Amino acid sequence: MNKIFAAVLVMLIAAPAFAAPSGTNAQTYARLKASNPEAYQRCRGLARERGYKGGDEDPAPARRFIRKCMQGTQR
């Protein structure tokens, strides 16, 4: 009985950490943009200045730069 309880407890604690992120990348960045439009535009401009194009082919690097810039962790 204790082993079952321990296993259930571990799953309740660990499951949210391993869960897939909610929503798509587009939804995530739409929420990010909506949370602080001025910072989003400033970081987007900075990304373009630094050469991040982020088109349909591979938007991930530009998005990652913008996200980190808005979080204040981008160098």
Number of strands: 0
Rg, nearest Å: 18 Å
Q: Could you estimate the helical fraction of the residues in percent?
A: over 70%
Distance between the termini: 52 Å
Structural class: mainly alpha
- The percentage of residues in β strands lies in under 5%
Number of helices: 4
Largest sheet entry: none
The coarse silhouette is elongated
Spell out the helices and strands N to C.
HHHH
Work out the oligomeric state of the chains in this entry: single chain
Low-confidence stretches: none
Mean pLDDT: 75
Q: Quick recap of the structure?
A:
The protein has helices spanning 2-18, 25-35, 37-49, 60-71. With 75 residues, it is an all-alpha fold. It has a domain at 20-71.
Please, could you describe this protein's structure?
The chain is mainly alpha-helical and 75 residues long. It has a domain at 20-71. The protein contains four helices and no strands. Helix 2 crosses helix 3 (37-49). The model has no long low-confidence stretch (mean pLDDT 75).
Give the helices and strands, then pairings:
Elements: H1 2-18, H2 25-35, H3 37-49, H4 60-71
Helix pairs in contact: 2-3, 3-4
